[in-house]
Every structure is written in C-alpha cells, then in structure tokens.
Amino acid sequence: MCQQFPKGIPKYQENTTYIIKDMKNILVVGAGGQIGSELVPYLRNIYGDSHVVAADLNCAPCMKLGENGPLENLDALDGKQYAEIVKKYKIDAIFNLVALLSATGEKNPQLAWKINMGALMNSLEIARENGAALFTPSSIGAFGNNTPHDGTPQDTIMHPSTIYGVCKVTGELLGDYYHQRFGVDARSVRFPGIISNETLPGGGTTDYAVEVYYAAVKGEQFTCPLPEGTYLDMMYMPDALKACVQLMEADPSKLKHRNSFNISAMSFEPSQILAAIQKRMPEFKMVYNVDPIKKAIAESWPNYMDDTCARNEWGWNPTWNLETMTDDMLKVIADKHAKGLLK
Ligand code: AKB
To answer: Which fold has domain 194-234+265-338?
Structure first.
C-alpha cells in the first residue's frame, strides 16, 4: 500500500500561496544532455515550439535545439542569469536536468556536490520566487547497500555510498521540504538507467547498456565494465519522456508522494542484453573487463524496484521491454550508421 511519506512535517506557511498552474511556458535546464536533448522536442510537440525554452551551459553542441524554439546559454549555478531567463519567458515549469552522474561523481565528489546541489538549490529558489513547478530527476542511485535490493519499496532505507546518491537523497528531501514549507510544486521520479539513441550518456554506471548497442552496430567487440549477473533497473527513453510529462500533469490531489517515485520498465544483467543483441546479430561478441568502481556502485543499487505507488498515484505504465527496445535501438542506430552519422 502507498502511504503518505514523510509524515508530520509542518505545512507551508499560511501566507504562502500554493500554486498549481498548467504548464504553459517550460524551461529545460541541462537541455543538451542525454535526457534533455530528447525531452525538449518531446515537450515542444505537446506544448508548442515557442513555449519550451532549451538552456545549457554550452549551447554549441546542441544548436539543433535552437532551430525550432528558444535556446539560451545558461550556467545553472548562476542564479541571477537563471532567474532572468525564467522571467524573460514567463516560465511556469522547470525541468532541472543538470547532473554529474555516478561514476564521474566519484572522480571528483566536491565538484559533483557543487554542480548537482548548486543547480538544484537555484532551481528550487527560482521556482519558489516565480511560482513555477519543478521537476528534478532522482535516481536508483539514491539507494545503497542496506536497501532491500529485490522489489525495492517506495519508502525504504536510503543510505547511498556515492556522492551522486547523497545528492539525490538530499534533492528528494529538499523537494519535499520546498513543497511543504513554501508550496513549490516539486515532483520527481527515481530514474533507472536510461537507454537512448540520440545523445550518449556520460559518466554513469548504467551507460554500458547504451554503449553495447553502438558497438554491435559498428561491428565492434564490446567490453562490459560490469560483471555478469549485475541486475539493474533500466528504461527506454520514450518511457522516460512519457513519465516526465505524466507526473507533471498528474492531479496533485492524487499524489501521496512527490519526491521521488520509484519507476521502472525492465531489469536485466549484462549477459541478458548480450543475448538479446545476439538473437538479432549472432556474430556480436562481448567480453568483461570489470571496473571496480562501477561494480561497487552497481552492486549497491536495486536489482529491481517496486513502482506500485507511481502506477497507483499517477498511472505510470511503461511500454517498452528488453526485446522491443533492442529491435528499435538496433534499427535507429543502424540507420544513423548507414548515413555516416555515428562517430
Ligand atoms: C548513472 O548510472 O549514474 C545514471 C543513473 C542510474 O542515475 N544513469
């Protein structure tokens, strides 16, 4: 059963207006990354090109996002510049996708905290000052070694061993705090590894599940950094995009949770994704060369999460599984390869 969590935190100040607005003008911060580069066109398709502003630290690699809608250079750590953009476009919903991921975070924990928490605090404050709703993804990385790994419950022990996870747990707490204390409409999901074919992820522990498809299409042998048997939750990008909009459009009176919902679509380990690819490309080969940091991180994360609360509270219902995703990934990446678009 989905219980209200946490309980007993004082409601937001009485003189604070609790604002629930329709998403009309949306800002995607960190738009050039793996999720942002696909979320921007997805949102533009629903809400209109001119109503979805893409912003990134460095727009040069994501100029494509400026072709049919607004694109801004934005350092999310610069609160003044961030607030100016929110005011300029009368933004009422922010998707804060700025993050240094789990494996990169362990190389420089101080920088990971500075970027992940700096962008989040600015997003929360700017959302509060401007009455904007805020979506910030959490992750399976918010869990740790002492969390139940099989059927990880929605409300459970959260004691991560990575700086990425520490930021995610802190972010979840802050999101709920800003909601209860100031009435900010902050919502979030705990994303599993996201598999996609537009922009490569960078610095994550689950990245192997994207890279393996590119290696297969290029006719290369893949070296897997995680050991066989390492189960992790995963999701194909179309389901991740659907989740973002479905949660932000959900009736707030139905939400017992906010920050953050377990959501999953599939769980597999490296030899299963290998088998799925080999079923379609029997010549494909994978070897293991285990990265001890990634192994430790992956082993501290759930094997699979229980996402019943997301299903019950806002209708989460993923479409893609390992088989259908593998068909699509290989087709899309092969098309790009044929056109000479792969590096
Ligand atoms: C990572 O591997 O760091 C991310 C995540 C699961 O949050 N993909």
So the answer is: Rossmann fold (3.40.50)
Ligand 1 site, residue 105, Cβ cutoff 6 A: no
| pLDDT computed for residue 324 by the predictor | 97
Amino acid at position 178, single letter: Y
Q: Where are the domains of the chain?
A: 26-192, 194-234+265-338
pTM of the full structure: 0.93
Pairing assessment for the beta strands 232-236 and 266-268 based on DSSP bridges: antiparallel
Is 193 touching ligand 1 by the criterion CB < 6 Å?
yes
* Topology classification of domain 26-192: Rossmann fold (3.40.50)
Would you state the pLDDT for residue 292?
A: 97
- The answer to whether 231 and 205 have CB atoms below 8 angstroms apart is no
How do residues 222-260 score in pLDDT, each as one tens digit?
999 999 999 999 999 999 999 999 999 999 999 999 999
Ligand 1 centroid distance, CA of 204 (Å): 5
Identify the helix (H) or strand (E) that includes residue 177: helix 163-182
Active site amino acids: 164
Q: Tell me the torsion sign for CA atoms 166, 171, 173, 177.
A: positive
| Atom number of ligand 1 nearest to Cα 206 | 2
Determine contact, residues 206/239, Cβ cutoff 8 Å. no
Q: Which residue has the tokens 């476009």?
A: 89
